Task: structure prediction
Amino acid sequence: MMPYRLLACLLAVLLAVHAVRAEDHIATANAAYRTIQQAKRSDLILLPLVAKMDATPAPISTPERAMLIPAGSSAWSAAEAWAMAAPQRAVLQALDRITQEDTSPQAFAFGLPYGSDALGSGPDGIALIRANLYVELGSPPLLAAAKFLYLPSLDHVACLVHVEATRLAAEGKVAEAIEVLTDLVFFGRQMADRQMFEECRWGIRTMAVTLDRVRDIAYVDFRFGSRTLSTEQITSILERLRPEGMINIERIQFPRGEQIGRASCRGRV
Result:
């Protein structure tokens, strides 16, 4: 039989080799984000503000619930007060900033790296980790073990956008309501470019649901409202949402993160 100490040494070597290979695969997944200019990383702008958001009121705790609550209902006053508070206004302003039409290679992109180590040891990274606004890879870190702790907070951002859209539409500012919803559509488009399936799914689902909400608000204004949308505003909305523009889904690639993660588990490139 193989001596116990020799067996222990061999096991330690194998584990060390596996850990190195796992780190290499994490670096491969994160390499997709290294080409993004720091000034164009939407995660660096949005997430620190998301960390400061007030707790989302229970009646609007999911995007589905938030988009259905009507202005003037019993729960509306709390929802409106939440959306109008300073931390939430800062998030809406940031969302508008990172989703302006820019189809050049220098457009904003969500570049949050995978793993706590990749965030660095600086105060900004530590703050995101403490706020659970990062991707946890476990110990030892593995892409296959990824937990997307930040995604529930992005749902809260979506809740905020839907409440804001309801507020604006109730005030007769239908074009502005559609504008803030379009911001969320474009942010979902950024998320659709992520390396991991769960992130990509969040982005595509957010785009689909929010585009439905754009349609609903425009329909209600036309069918039951004051028809406040002018021909010029409708043309501007359609131009911003043109299929070959910012939401061009033909450029979405299949997320490779799971494939990379499986390769690291098998211990080969």
Summary: DSSP finds eleven helices and two strands in the chain. The longest helix spans residues 4-31.
